[in-house]
């Protein structure tokens, strides 16, 4: 029964260096023959393992060593792992048949064929792929076959192989395959490994004649439904931590394509699809390159983790990029170059799948309900276009190419009619992309066509995404090419740069269609009142075009916009506005999230920078779209409330004059609001409350906080600690108000208590009353960026109380919790500390931009307190793994930090605190 299969030519190194099957078989024979056949089965298995175990380990090491030296040699690597597995299984089976369960004269029923199925059957294996085996018997399994199978499986399991197995007859396979498409798919890729080759061939023939023939449509529908459900779960292709196997554009998509090809066209190699007319030579090359690259990534993932890992998490992206030889260059990290290649291959896989499915439609194999979108009635199309299987197709390719403007008109017609573009039309565009040259880019008709794609038909993201995937967008705007599929290696952005831009434009389109009026009232009203839409769409398209270089992307992007915007047909004044928007597209976000907008200087400075109502409106909408386009969970009520407040105050200042922005006016309004809110208090108590606070208190808090503090302070004793917790739904945060006797370092102590409670502080401010009490308001969120639910508030309060009473020492307790998760340790965030004496009239603003971690705010505030720095307020802006903490401070004499020497000394101590905490976090 022992088979002798010649090693395939594509092994990564000579077969004998991977696994010398003949020598190993001789060694097993010698070990088992040592004491004669009386050796117990347990002892025999132990001896077999003693030989196979080291041989398998040595074979894996040999493959891995060669692969490390040639990190892109995936095809030969996966064939080598599959061949090594074949030989290991063959030796185990041979020993079981000849030594453990010898059968000199087998009956007709005592035959056994062993087949590889699934991915292993395809002959493609990563280092820790599953080993799926089918033990095929002619009739009901005999005791001899059961014993052989059991002994073999014990050996394989003891070798550490993850074996999935089934024992069936040919009839079983046909019956189960008819009932279950997963089983049918595994059987589709069966490959004979050992035993009765004739029985294996019988199964192969019966599967084709009795199961596969005539069921092609059912199989395709099942596979495409599986694919659609998998894509739904995985989300968009350009998520920054993709699944190499299951994600969009991943290996499973390529395998799905191959399954369908094998089932319908009876091919054993994708190369045969070229002869069948389903792929061109260029498309097959694209398939091969994507296949090799994705398998290389998967193999490196397995080797890096020592297990079957499929998710390219942030930490593994860095390691795989290093293993594959990528290097830092052009202002970008090696991992970013690697991931850009990954996403471009994933895009190519998507295009290949569309092309292949189109050919199935043409052959009437794929049924109509499987189309992504099918229109039962014919649409009225412009001349030159036709409708094929519900998609927009080109009637005459030669005539189409005779006018190069048609390369853009195709996408406009798709938007106008709502039809998806036929893959054959996409192939034609891709094959003739070189027709998009400078002459076409400077053609006013082409410029108008492109602008119309943005502003005329709605759903511009659909056209842009397809143009981007086909390379049309980069051909028409060459400056876009560097950011195509560019990954930003951080935890803040959920998409690649180009997909982020398209998501932003999608957000703008939704606002224009009135879909977000309740969620975005200001942005919706701005668009309803009217803005220059051409400027807004072009600014969004170009706002991140400068990313990935050494220079500040806003400055470089503005320079690029100055060149690109005229080529898109904008007038000089529009170009100026686009340039300004790109240059300052982060201004409003930074002002709202990194500065205290309760400080009148913040609003005045912002108003002076913006200058006009037109710019304010445009920048507000652009900022909203930019933040919402970062990821599905980035936008929240906290950011919305900050932006709304900044917009309204700036607009009011522009309309009424900047002189209206003053502390006295705000204080008077706040006191009047408190009187109205405390209408149930007598006049004497209200006068006492209004007189106990200094002016900054009235200017920095909302009336709801003033009410909470008034109630906390009423009757408060010097040794009391009063706390009020309330969910601030308008800000997606929980507000914690503290009232207690003032003392140095109070802010740090409160920050420590909140850190121990697992709270993330997003805003905070403290004030001292004239009678010696401190009032501190903190806005906090949980680890998911949400306010604490009411049911969790008692436990939160308990932790805070214990810390403030000294029952828990924050500095000691935080050390055990101040850890950065492994997958997040690969990020580099340089520390920048700046001192700003111009951004506030009475405070120095210390801005600390660094790597975020649980105990950071406590470490920073404790350092400031130790150096006699009074903290009035802290504004915390978090961007994934990066955080910007802005502290409004005075020195012990109530003065700003003007001395450069004092600034330098304080910066040194802050950096030391950051580094010491970082060492704890890395431990």
What does this structure look like?
By secondary structure, the protein is α+β, with helices and mostly antiparallel strands. It folds into 5 domains: 15-213, Beta Polymerase, domain 2; 218-370, Nucleotidyltransferases  domain 2 (Four Helix Bundle (Hemerythrin (Met), subunit A), Up-down Bundle); 374-454, no CATH class; 477-661, no CATH class; 701-922, Alpha-Beta Plaits (2-Layer Sandwich), CATH 3.30.70.260. The protein contains 40 helices and 15 strands. The strands form 3 sheets. It has an 8-stranded antiparallel sheet, sandwiched between helices. α4 crosses α6 (143-158), α26 (553-567) packs antiparallel against α27 (572-583) and α36 packs antiparallel against α39 (856-866).
Strand count, sense and barrel status of the largest sheet are: 8 strands, antiparallel
CATH topology of the largest domain: Alpha-Beta Plaits
What radius of gyration results from the CA coordinates?
34 Å
Helicity range: 40-55%
* Shape label: globular
Q: Decide which structural class fits the backbone.
A: alpha+beta
Proportion of strand residues: 5-15%
Runs with pLDDT <50, length 5+?
369-376
Strand order within the widest beta sheet = 8-9-11-10-14-15-13-12
List the domain count as a whole number: 5
Mean pLDDT: 90
Distance from N terminus to C terminus (CA atoms, Å) equals 56 Å
Give the total of beta strands: 15
């Amino acid at each position: 029964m022992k088979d002798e299969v010649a090693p395939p030519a594509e092994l990564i190194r000579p077969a004998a260096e991977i696994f010398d099957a003949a020598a190993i078989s001789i060694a097993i024979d010698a070990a088992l023959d040592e004491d004669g056949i009386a050796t117990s089965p347990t002892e025999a298995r132990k001896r077999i393992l003693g030989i196979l175990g080291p041989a398998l380990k040595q074979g894996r090491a040999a493959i891995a060593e060669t692969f490390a030296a040639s990190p892109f040699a995936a095809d030969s690597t996966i064939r080598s792992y599959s061949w090594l597995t074949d030989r290991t299984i063959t030796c185990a089976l041979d020993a079981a048949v000849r030594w453990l369960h010898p059968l000199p004269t087998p009956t007709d029923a005592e035959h056994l064929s062993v087949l590889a199925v699934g991915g292993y059957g395809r002959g493609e294996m990563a280092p820790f792929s599953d080993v799926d085996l089918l033990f095929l018997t002619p009739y009901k399994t005999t005791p001899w076959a059961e014993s052989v199978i059991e002994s073999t499986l014990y050996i394989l399991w003891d070798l550490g192989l993850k074996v999935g197995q089934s024992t069936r007859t040919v009839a079983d396979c046909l019956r189960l395959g008819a009932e279950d498409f997963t089983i049918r798919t595994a059987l589709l890729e069966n490959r004979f490994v050992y035993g009765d080759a004739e029985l294996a061939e019988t199964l192969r023939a019966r599967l084709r004649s009795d199961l596969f023939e005539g069921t092609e449509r059912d199989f395709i529908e099942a596979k495409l439904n599986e694919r659609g459900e998998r894509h739904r779960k995985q989300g968009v292709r350009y998520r920054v931590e993709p699944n190499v196997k299951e994600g969009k554009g991943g290996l499973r998509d390529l395998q799905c394509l191959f399954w369908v090809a094998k089932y319908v066209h009876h091919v054993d190699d994708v190369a045969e699809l070229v002869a069948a007319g389903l792929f061109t030579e260029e498309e097959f090359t694209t398939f091969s390159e994507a296949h090799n690259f994705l398998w290389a990534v998967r193999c490196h993932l397995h080797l890096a983790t020592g297990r079957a890992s499929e998710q390219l998490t942030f930490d593994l992206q860095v390691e795989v990029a290093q293993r594959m030889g990528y290097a830092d260059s052009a202002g970008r990290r090696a991992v970013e170059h690697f991931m850009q290649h990954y996403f471009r291959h994933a895009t190519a896989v998507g295009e290949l799948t569309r092309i292949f499915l189109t050919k199935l439609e043409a052959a009437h194999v794929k049924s109509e309900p499987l189309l992504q979108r099918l229109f039962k009635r014919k649409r009225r199309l412009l001349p030159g276009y036709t409708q094929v299987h519900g998609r927009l197709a080109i009637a005459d390719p030669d005539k189409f190419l005779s006018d190069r403007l048609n390369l853009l008109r195709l996408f406009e017609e798709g938007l106008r009619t709502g039809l998806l573009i036929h893959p054959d039309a996409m192939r034609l565009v891709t094959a003739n992309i070189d027709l998009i040259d400078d002459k076409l880019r400077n053609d006013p008709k082409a410029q108008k066509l492109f602008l119309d794609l943005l502003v005329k038909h709605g759903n511009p993201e659909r056209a842009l995404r397809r143009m981007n995937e086909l390379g049309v967008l980069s051909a028409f705007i060459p400056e876009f090419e560097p950011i195509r599929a560019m990954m930003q290696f951080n935890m803040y952005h959920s998409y690649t740069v180009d997909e982020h831009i398209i998501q932003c434009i999608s957000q703008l389109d939704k606002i224009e269609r009135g879909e977000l009026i309740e969620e975005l009232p200001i942005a919706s009203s701005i668009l309803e009142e009217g803005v220059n839409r051409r400027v807004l769409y072009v600014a969004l398209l170009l706002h991140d075009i400068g990313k990935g270089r050494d220079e500040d992307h806003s400055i470089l992007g503005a320079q690029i916009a100055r060149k690109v915007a005229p080529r898109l047909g904008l007038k000089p004044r529009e170009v100026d506005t686009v340039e300004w928007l790109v240059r300052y597209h982060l201004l409003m976000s930074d002002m709202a999230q990194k500065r205290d907008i309760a400080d009148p200087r913040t609003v005045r400075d912002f108003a002076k920078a913006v200058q006009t109502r037109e710019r304010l409106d445009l920048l507000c909408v652009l900022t909203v779209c930019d933040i919402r386009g970062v990821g599905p969970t980035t936008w929240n009520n906290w950011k919305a409330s900050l932006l709304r407040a900044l917009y309204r105050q700036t607009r009011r200042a522009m309309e009424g004059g900047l002189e209206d922005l003053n502390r006295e006016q705000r204080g008077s309004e706040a006191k009047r609001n408190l009187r109205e809110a405390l209408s149930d208090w007598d006049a004497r108590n209200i006068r006492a409350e209004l007189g106990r606070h200094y002016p900054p208190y009235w200017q920095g808090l909302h009336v709801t906080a003033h009410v909470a503090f008034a109630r906390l302070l009423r009757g408060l004793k010097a040794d009391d600690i009063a706390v009020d917790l309330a969910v601030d739904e308008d800000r997606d945060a929980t507000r914690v108000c503290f009232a207690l006797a003032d003392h140095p370092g109070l802010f740090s102590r409160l920050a420590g208590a909140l850190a121990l409670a697992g709270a993330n502080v997003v805003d905070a401010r403290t004030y001292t009353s004239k009678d010696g009490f401190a009032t501190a308001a903190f806005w906090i969120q949980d680890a998911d960026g949400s306010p604490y639910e009411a049911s969790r508030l008692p436990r939160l309060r308990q932790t805070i109380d214990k810390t403030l009473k000294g029952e828990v020492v924050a500095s000691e307790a935080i050390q055990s919790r101040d850890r950065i998760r492994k997958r997040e340790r690969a990020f580099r965030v340089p520390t920048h500390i700046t001192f700003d004496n111009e951004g506030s009239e009475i405070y120095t603003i210390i801005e600390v931009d660094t790597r975020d971690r649980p105990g950071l705010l406590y470490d920073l505030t404790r350092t400031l307190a130790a150096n006699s720095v009074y903290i009035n307020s802290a504004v915390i802006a978090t961007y994934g793994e990066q955080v910007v903490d802005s502290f409004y401070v005075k020195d012990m004499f109530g003065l700003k930090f003007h001395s450069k020497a004092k600034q330098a000394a304080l910066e040194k101590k802050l950096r030391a605190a950051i580094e010491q905490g970082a060492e704890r976090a890395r431990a």
